[in-house]
Amino acid sequence: QVQLVESGGGLVQAGGSLRLSCAASGRIFPINIMAWYRQAPGKQRELVATRTSRGTAVYADSAKGRFTVFRNNPKNNTVYLQMNSLKSEDTAVYYCYAADEIGGMDYWGKGTLVTVSS
Q: What mean pLDDT comes out for the span 92-104?
């Protein structure tokens, strides 16, 4: 089992920045993908950014140029989502996701709320 705990959400004005963190614990060795999703009120959950264990990052169009997913310490089982130039439409609950593609397992965090005021 893998546990994911998000933090860093909060209220920010439009144009501001936030950094979300996702701390992974448990049986993390097989995890080869970590990602951030978000779900706005009344909308479906959508992918924001993905990072593979090799460091490859892929972003949704809405996140390109503004968001960065990274891991700044190989010994630290934490993945970050740096969000800049935030817009009101970025308001959502942001969820951390991890997958062990070979083992066919995936995991979700409980989410952290980001509210962007215009």
A: 94
Q: Where are the alpha helices (DSSP H) in 8-111?
A: none
- Only one residue has tokens 């996140």, namely 63
Among the listed residues 37, 20, 31, 8, the one whose alpha carbon sits nearest the alpha carbon of residue 77:
31
Tens digits of residue pLDDT in 41-52: 999 999 999 999
Model confidence at 79, pLDDT cuts 50, 70, 90, reads very high
Residues 6+ apart with CB under 8 A from 31: 2, 24, 53, 98, 99, 100
Q: Return the DSSP state at 3.
A: E
**Cα(93)–Cα(9) distance, integer angstroms:** 8
